[in-house]
Amino acid sequence: MPDDEHSSIIAVINTPKTGTGELTNYATHDTQSNAVFRTHSVSSGLQAVTDHRIHFHDPSHQCIILTTIREPNTWIKSLFMEQNRDLCVDDMTMDRFFQKYLEWLHSFNYKLSSQDNPIHGLLQEFGSSSLTYHFENFDKNGGYSLLHHPSEGPLQGCKLLFLRMEDASNWSNILTSEVFDQINPYNPSDPTSARRQHCSQNVNDLYSEFQTYSLTEEERNVLVGNDSLMEEYLQLYGL
Questions:
Q1: Among 62, 69, 140, 211, which has the highest number of CB atoms less than 10 A from its own CB?
Q2: 155 CB-near residues (< 8 Å, 6+ apart)
Q3: φ and ψ at residue 62, rounded to 5 degrees
């Protein structure tokens, strides 16, 4: 039989720019007995969890999958900045910044309803489809919704902990109650610190101003397309 030292697993299967690093830091900081895995791909993430469970032949070992959702206006702008590091030049102007953003958005082929999208793919795997249901749980529980895998097989006994990023200040308490028996003090890092170090003060100031603008109707239509789950997502955030 395999060694039980890392028989339990915590898998962070998450959308880019929605706290993946912070969740991974929580998981690796607060436990020595779990295998920790992170990815943005549902297929590779679930395969890694499945392989791990088959390897240890015991569904009683802890199996936690973590994923998050983030307010779309801040998420889309953060993702844009992450994918356009060439904007970090001293002579950048807001007009050029916005022009680049609109060009990027129109070429942005993102489908929330894609099978390999972390939110859609994981909810389907755990027998759920309605974001509205989970938002009701977020409000009731202080920022999380918990699902148990509905079928037998390698993922039997696995839990999906679905977190709202706007409640990140509660993550320590949530993870304490739903994942770990106890949690060590941990001060999460500022997720914008890497960008601030990479960019000039001028660009940081432009980005701060950029974040204050709401999605326009044109931008919203580009994001939604014919994606009903994206439409539900935006509506739940009042957009």
A1: 69
A2: 46, 49, 50, 53, 63, 125, 149
A3: -60, 135
